[in-house]
Amino acid sequence: MMEKDVQKTENVSATERIRNVKTFVPRVDIYENKDALFLIADMPGVDEKTVDIELEKNVLKICGCVENGRIPDATLMYSEYEIGDYERVFTLSDEIDREKIVASVKNGVLRLELPKAEKVKPRKIAIKAA
Description:
Elements: H1 2-5, E1 6-9, E2 23-24, E3 28-32, E4 36-42, E5 51-56, E6 59-64, E7 85-92, E8 102-106, E9 109-115
Parallel strand pairs: 2-7
Antiparallel strand pairs: 1-7, 3-4, 4-9, 5-6, 6-7, 8-9
């Protein structure tokens, strides 16, 4: 069911960038239960002030900005870790209740809960004795 509820959209560079930094596509795990889908995105360096989530029509866009992390008055001698922004786009199906989407971020991990619309949730049908 997941494939028809949330789809990756690869055209991330279609938007105009105003910051001259590298942009990374964050890795995302997607979970599903009977009530919702959950997107867990690794975005080291972002917090609730530097991550932005937009939903327009059926396109969910996640953006995160990370500051350079440099130490003032110090010269970088060696670096193994690249710093940049994050951007990822998903296409949602009509089976997601857009009004009830919830997002939280902690320690650079963004968690989105995408509740399923009532019409698509499984339901138990009562059986009456004849």
